[in-house]
Each structure stands twice: as C-alpha cells, then as structure tokens.
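Input:
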Amino acid sequence: QSALTQPASVSGSPGQSITISCTGTSSDVGSYNLVSWYQQHPGKAPKLMIYEVSKRPSGVSNRFSGSKSGNTASLTISGLQAEDEADYYCCSYAGSSYVVFGGGTKLTVL
Amino acid sequence: EVQLVESGGGLVQPGGSLRLSCAASGFTFSSYEMNWVRQAPGKGLEWVSYISSSGSTIYYADSVKGRFTISRDNAKNSLYLQMNSLRAEDTAVYYCARDLGWFEIDYWGQGTLVTVSS
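Output:
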C-alpha cells in the first residue's frame, strides 16, 4: 500500500480560500467514503478536522470542508486565518483492514 | 474530557524491546476501538496497529507485523504496544489514538518518543 499523494506545501493570504488535494487509487480513496483530514501544529498531536469525506466533528469551524471526486479527496479552508497555519494530513481506509496516510501538506498563511 | 496519556518511550538499542502504555480517561474505554500511529522525526503519520474494543480483533501494518504486539486491559483503561526487534526506522513519536469508526481517529494522545540507536 502506497501513501496518498498530497502537495508538499500550499499558501494563501488571510481571508482567502485554499484547497489541499489528496490523491489515492481505486483501492483506497476511490473505493471508500472513509477519508479523514488532520491538522497538526508543530510539536502537537494531530487534530481531526474532517471524517467520512465531508463530516465535521463538533467544535471544528465550518470554514473547513471536505469533498471527494473519484480517487481524489480535497480539503478546503475558507476565510484563511493565521491559526490555520499547520501541517495537514489526509487518511483513507484501504481495505483489508489497512489504513494509509498522505505525506502531509504544509499550509503557510502569508 | 477525553484524555490519552502515553508513556514508556525512550532510547533503546537496535534489536531491543520496549513496551508503550496509554492511559485512557474521560470516556468508556471498553466501548472503543483503539490504534497506535507513529511519526518519524520530520516525517508524516504512519498507522501502526488497531485493536477492537474487546481485544479480539487486531491488525498491524506490514512494517511492524511479527515484531509488535498490541493489547489492552479494559479493567485498567489501558492500551499497550509491545515492540520487539526494534530497528532504527522504528524511531518515531508513537501516538495512542481513539477510533471513531473504520480507523478514523477522533482523539490523539500527546505522543511518546521512541529512539532506536546504538
């Protein structure tokens, strides 16, 4: 099982919207609506931002949204804020009781 | 408040063993599936192992299969990871993580660092 593909970095200015892609295969992202997204600030534990492709846990801002098309999932952050600067990881169930993460995307708020 | 507190990390020589523990509180531990996820220094996240709420079903990543053993004690609200035949590439922060369902993780511990080096 290979890691999901994410861009190494993305950037945006405060107030703008950005989208982070997460590309897998027909064996993982394309087959299951079990894609989750995690935010990780330096030196901290990851935090769940999106699960089951597009669901937001209680307490997560509605500026965060998720979607999927074919083998690619996406995380969109609207109205960028300075505190959104962090690493973001996607994750997908890959069948056969296996899970695969993306390599991570560093979001810089300019 | 859900809390997951890992312990047991440290420096170990290649080929050595280490046992990680995770103390859970703030929720009914016995009702939840659990995972271990690791992160090598400066690298991304890697799923390591899963255990069902009763402990009857267990899965491992290929990279640790045959060397690591996950277990739990629901009476003690604790999760464990026994790591044997450790390699340099096992060096990472190990996170204890609560499963929301289908390996999606809703809570993470603060992590414990394991360093495998001579």
